[in-house]
Amino acid sequence: MEFHRARGLPQGYLVGGSMPESTLAYCSKILDGLIPDDRPLIGLHVGNFLGVSLSHFVNYVRQRNENSVVVSVDPNLKHGIEYTQKHVIAILNHFGLQKNAIICVGYSTNKTVSNDGVAFTDQNGIEYDPYSGFQNEQSRENTLPNLCAISEGKFDFAVVDGNHEGSHLRRETAIVRRLLKPEGILILDDVSDAWTEIKAEYDNLRTKGWRAVAADGRVGVLQAGSHSSAPS
Fold it and tell me: Among 50-59, 134-143, 195-204, where is mean pLDDT lowest?
């Protein structure tokens, strides 16, 4: 956060668009208890924004094993701040994490309206309506399905913090299940009453072969496999 603030990024965007430090530490603790400490880890991160949580998870896997890697997916669209990817790359390089990160620029599945369709005033004070700008927004599509073609069943964990629409999240989690190892870990951000569609998908997954491992009021952690649902 301090690194980005020193580069002139607004405090409000940093705090509002990033997982809090306490939640990131919570995720690391949960992963420590679920993933064996005997090999390099492969993680997936959907939704980069300014790279704060991505940097945390890249640093986490590298500390576990220097040959670990995190693959991230983000369309690099205007999200209050333009060209967010340059800030992601800057923070990764600042902390020496660039060797353990693979950045995929593109939509996770199909093209969707940016910023969950919510209009905003950007860092330059210019109002932006994602629906009006939809036709002009461009990025790759189908990133997660394409990853399945080359790395199905390879990922130890996935952090999903992208589009918050329920139907889109359902498509993402179905594909993420194919990318994860048989008992891989899924971390969903914004599992709270403030995001009812995400909370509904979290509850739905618990009836479809996922075990609820933990929740802190911000993230919900699930483990794949033939487990009965457990209370969070």
Answer: 134-143
pLDDT at 128: 67
One DSSP character per residue, 87-131 reads HHHHHHHHTT-GGGEEEEES-SSS---GGGG--EE-TTS-EE-HH
Longest dimension (CA), the chain: 50
Closest by CA position to 106, among listed 164, 145, 51, 52:
145
Q: Assess contact for 70 and 45: CB atoms under 8 A.
A: yes
Q: Is the pLDDT of residue 115 over 70?
A: no
Amino acid type, 23 = T
Are the CB atoms for 141 and 110 separated by under 8 Å? yes
User: The domain 2-223: what is its CATH number?
Assistant: 3.40.50.150
Beta strand 219-223 pairing with 211-215: antiparallel
Whole-angstrom Cα distance, residue 211 to residue 138? Answer: 37
**Which residue in this structure is represented by tokens 């009812």?**
196
C-alpha closest to that of 186 among 161, 151, 207, 217: 161
Q: Please tell me the distance from the alpha carbon of residue 65 to that of residue 63, in angstroms, as a whole number.
A: 5
H helix intervals, 105-142: 130-133
